[in-house]
Each structure stands twice: as C-alpha cells, then as structure tokens.
Amino acid sequence: MAKRNNDNQPIQDILKEFVKKNNLQSGLDKVNVRDAWVNLMGNGVNNYTTAIELKHEILYVQLSSSVLREELSYGNEKIVRMLNEAIGKDVVKKLILR
User: How many domains does the chain have?
Assistant: First the structure.
C-alpha cells in the first residue's frame, strides 16, 4: 500500500489556491459586493434596488426610485469606500446608479 502524504495545510490556504487555480475570484467578488450592498444599505434602499451588477470594477445599481437615486448620488464616493471596507479589498472603483 502507498504511504499517505502527510503535508498538512490549513483549509484556508487550500481554498485560496483552488480559487486562484480555477479563476473564480471575479465571481466571488461579484457575490461579495452584492452581499455588502444588501448589508450596508438596509431594507429602505434594498426595497427599491432592482439589480446589482459588477463589471470591470464598476458597480451598476438599478433603482426603481428616482428620488432615492438622486439622494444616493450625493454620497457616491462614501458608498464606494464603505463597500470596499466591507469586502476587505478594493473591488469597486466607481458606482453608477441607474
């Protein structure tokens, strides 16, 4: 019988290697941004949010309320900063509200 290889590695390192090897990071970033938006904005904004999409470091958020869109546009840079802090890295460079 073959000997078992006894290279113990933490599961965190194994998962990071798997994500890197299979080019899954962009998909995980999209999910993380969506979750961060839901957690940071709360129910008031989420009720009017119809779509969230991350493309090439630009976050597109579709809102059903033009008043809310205008109000959020004033804090655009702050929202980007808060989202990146919640994710833990700079994923979003620009926010476009539709």
Answer: 1
